[in-house]
Design brief:
This protein has 12 helices and 11 strands. By secondary structure, it is of the alpha/beta class. It has 2 domains: about 140 residues, inorganic pyrophosphatase (n-terminal core), CATH 3.90.1640; about 110 residues, Roll (Diaminopimelate Epimerase, Chain A, domain 1). The structure holds manganese (II) ion. The site of manganese (II) ion has 6 residues, from loops.
Length: about 325
């Protein structure tokens, strides 16, 4: 019986779903008795994934940056900024295990993993199709409109709220275990998950009000600073719900572990997109995807975060002037 440690992108529907899909695959294809332990990873300023996070058996990272450690046995990521350094990327390129995968063309890591389990390992899991479908919609921001993304009518969207805003690792790990065998409406019926949802749902509407007061939109760039509020887990589509005409959004927020600049492109904008936000944020030590990216600062570096947000807002505004 193998001990497996799965490190996943915390407070993220795609991270949680990736952990679930990998776990089902591992148990079904390799070891039904595997003992799987989960741990969430959060982007922090200058973060290295420490060797201390790894266990004695299999060590897996899903939907998160690469770690150049020989203890890492599986890796799946779809982020453009997947490597902290050229040395890390070289370490990945040298890998011969056939268990480490990177493809930024996938909208979600969940879909990427399920694609690989089918094409490389010939192990399809059709009962997980709905979970994979929603991970791809949510992580790829493929909602029909901001209303769908913010008003949270679908069970998957409700589960997304719990995953993004819950600070309880036990609850997140319960969700990872439940979604492997239950449908999303069934998972939402669990009393513990349901009661957490009710609490967060009320808070969600308060956060829309806070954002409404803290947000402005000039020259096509939506700006907000919610660092004075406990809003680290706010729904990232609220800015576009409030300002549908905005093309980009630049926000500053703060939690006990970091000050954060979040930069996004309005998924519903008709404007031609020009700026690669991953590249832009990489200049400040951050990263992400071309349409949504972020920079993490230490919690006491709020002023640096604000300065970076101002500069990025200027760059994006000038970019839009040129269109
Ligand atoms: Mn992802």
């Amino acid at each position: 019986m193998m001990k497996v440690k799965v490190l996943y992108h915390d407070n993220c529907f795609d991270g949680v779903s990736s952990a679930a899909v990998f776990s089902r695959f591992y148990k079904g294809h390799f070891d039904p008795g595997a003992v799987i332990e989960y741990e969430g990873l959060t982007h922090k300023a200058g973060q290295q994934i420490g060797e201390d996070l790894f266990g004695p058996g299999e060590n897996v990272i899903v939907d998160f940056k690469y770690c150049a450690s020989d203890k890492l046995t599986w890796w799946f990521d779809h982020h453009e900024s997947a490597f902290l350094s050229a040395q890390d990327e070289a370490h990945f390129r040298r890998d011969t295990s056939g268990h480490k995968f990177h493809d930024p063309s996938f909208k979600s890591c969940t879909k990427f993993i399920s694609h690989l389990t089918q094409t490389v390992f010939h192990y399809p899991m059709p009962d997980l199709d709905n979970l994979i479908y929603w991970a791809d919609i949510i992580d790829g921001a493929q909602f029909p409109d901001a209303k769908t993304a913010v008003e949270l009518k679908e069970p998957a969207m409700r589960l997304m709220l719990v995953i993004e805003a819950s600070h309880s690792p036990q609850l997140i790990h319960k969700i990872i275990r439940e979604v492997q065998h239950k449908s999303l409406p069934e998972v939402m019926e669990d009393p513990e998950i349901q009661s957490m949802f009710e609490k967060l749902y009320a808070h969600h509407f308060e956060s829309i009000d806070i954002m409404r007061r803290a947000t402005k939109c000039t020259g096509g760039v939506i700006q907000f600073d919610v660092s004075g509020h406990d809003l680290d887990g706010y729904n990232k589509f609220i800015p576009y719900y409030l300002f549908p005409e905005g093309v980009y959004s630049v926000g500053v927020s703060r939690s006990p572990v970091r000050a954060k600049v979040s930069v996004g492109t309005n998924p519903w904008t008709k404007q031609e997109r020009r700026q690669n936000l991953a590249k832009l944020c990489e200049q400040y030590g951050g990263g992400g995807h071309s349409v949504v990216a972020a920079i993490s600062f230490k919690p006491n570096e709020l002023e640096n975060a604000r300065a970076a947000a101002r500069e990025i807002t200027e760059i994006l505004r000038n970019d839009l002037k040129g269109t």
